[in-house]
TrEMBL record:
Source taxonomy: Bacteria, Pseudomonadati, Pseudomonadota, Alphaproteobacteria, Rhodobacterales
EC category name: hydrolase
Keywords: Hydrolase, Membrane, Protease, Transmembrane, Transmembrane helix
SUPFAM superfamilies: Rhomboid-like
Source organism (scientific name): Seohaeicola saemankumensis
Topology versus the membrane: Multi-pass membrane protein
InterPro entries for this protein: Peptidase_S54_rhomboid_dom, Rhomboid-like_sf, Rhomboid_protease_S54
Membrane-spanning ranges: 15-33, 40-57, 69-88, 100-118, 124-144, 151-173, 193-212
EC code: 3.4.21.-
The name this protein goes by in its record: Rhomboid family intramembrane serine protease
Family matches, as Gene3D superfamilies: Rhomboid-like
Gene Ontology MF term list: peptidase activity
Amino acid sequence: MFPIRDHNPSQKTPYVTYALIVVNIVVFASYWGMFSDPRAINALFAAFALTPATVTGGSEWHTMLTSMFMHGGLMHLAGNMLFLYIFGDNLEEELGHLRYLGFYLVSGLLAALAHVISAPFSTVPLVGASGAIAGVMGGYLLLFPKARVDVLFIFIIFFKIFPIPAWVMLGVWFGLQLFNGVGVDTQSGGVAYWAHAGGFIAGMALILPFWLNRGGPLYWRRTEGHPPHPEAQYRMVKSAIPRAGQRRNGDAPGASTARSLTDIPRSGRPRR
């Protein structure tokens, strides 16, 4: 289950969100070719990825910032940018461009710190914007808990898109980070669950003064837990792809001759 859009796209252009997406894509594109050269990619990650054991040793502190603009693969990048695109615009509209940028960067730094604390002796490099984006998600949850988010649910071969409140989707996501963070050996690598959880908590804590300044629960009453502008109306569009059906007498030459299931007799041999 993952989100594909929310129902309250911002009414102002989210320049910072777009810029962050572009920067992440450009940075990834600059070293994408190195993945075929293990020595080169490992040297790059050693210089700019966050390695907790190195940071706790008192060096390479800059990697807490640089690591949040690097990714370990194309799908890693695509997933992070999708989440940032969905949840970043409304937060940027409420905070303003510069304050939102500061919020994003501080959330990422605190997420990196949470990862270092959870695995202080790990020598596995950490890359990804997930911690900073988790902060955006935490801020979104506090400000817009009832905003509707369309999620794509996939179960084996069954899939369906349906809207759910943001607090359900984000609450489940945060719960999974905590559950996996407790049950996974963070020293040996894998997904940085505590960076996600730490970023999420940091985002909520950073946005708390802003929410209180807007009235706290009164802000929710005024907005009903939604971004303070009209909700977008989405509708399913009928596909323009023609359906293949049974050819009947009188059909024009070139019409579809695909047989329907009812055109095959019980013996399994098609009619002639």
